[in-house]
Specification:
six-stranded mixed β-sheet, two-stranded antiparallel ribbon, single chain
């Protein structure tokens, strides 16, 4: 015998679906894969799954081949702050990857960051247009901000040892769709860049609150 579970019924509408809407989500990173572009630029490919079961794949690029840090390093530092992680290191492990040959998700081996996965975290996602190889235009999700899932504190607020979240509502309001560079933005954004700031600049280890 089974009894109706309304929450389970609602989840069936979204399980396996992709996140396509700009907004604030709470969930976990289910995959964090160490990646290196053909240019030598390093980064992490993240798979985020919301509490409703919707998924988004986003990549953050942390440094160039010459060691120069990129904005993605700020985002990674913010993720680590929200998860109370001082250090992460890649380990050999399995993850799923789309295969054009089999037209399905295949399980492969590679370098992954398990410390970033399966822990509650809040993310702010925007949409962004990009040129496709066939000449068309595609749209993808972009990681714009991070916050602690249980407190809604941002990375800088955590590092400042604040207990009341203040930045998140402004950051949510600033979310927008980003057209291809050179096109007019869909909406003006104010202060959204603060979401990616790690807050680690000029801080010694003793002042990190975890």
């Amino acid at each position: 015998m089974y009894n109706l579970d309304p929450q389970a019924a609602r989840k069936a509408d979204t399980t396996g679906a992709s996140i396509t809407e700009i907004g604030k989500y709470i969930g976990t990173f289910t995959q964090a894969v160490d990646v290196t572009a053909s240019t030598g630029t390093k980064g992490i490919a993240l798979t985020f799954q919301s509490g409703a079961g919707q998924k988004a794949r986003v990549s953050i690029y942390t440094q160039k081949a010459n060691g120069e840090k990129l904005m993605g390093f700020d985002a990674l530092s913010a993720i680590m702050t929200c998860l109370s992680l001082r250090t992460i290191a890649p380990k050999t492990g399995s993850y799923t990857k789309w295969s054009n040959d089999t037209r399905s998700e295949d399980t492969v081996q590679g370098q992954v960051f398990p410390d970033l996965c399966n822990k509650p975290i809040g993310v702010l996602l925007e949409t962004e247009d990009y040129p496709k190889n066939n000449g068309g235009t595609g749209t993808r999700m972009v990681l714009k901000g991070l916050f602690q899932a249980n407190t809604e504190l941002t990375a800088s607020e955590i590092l400042d040892k604040k207990t009341t979240p203040e930045q998140l509502p402004r950051m949510v309001q600033a979310l927008r769709h980003r057209p291809i560079r050179g096109a007019k933005p869909a909406a003006a954004a104010h202060g959204a860049s603060g979401a990616a700031s790690s807050g680690f600049d000029d801080m010694d280890d003793d002042s990190i609150p975890f």
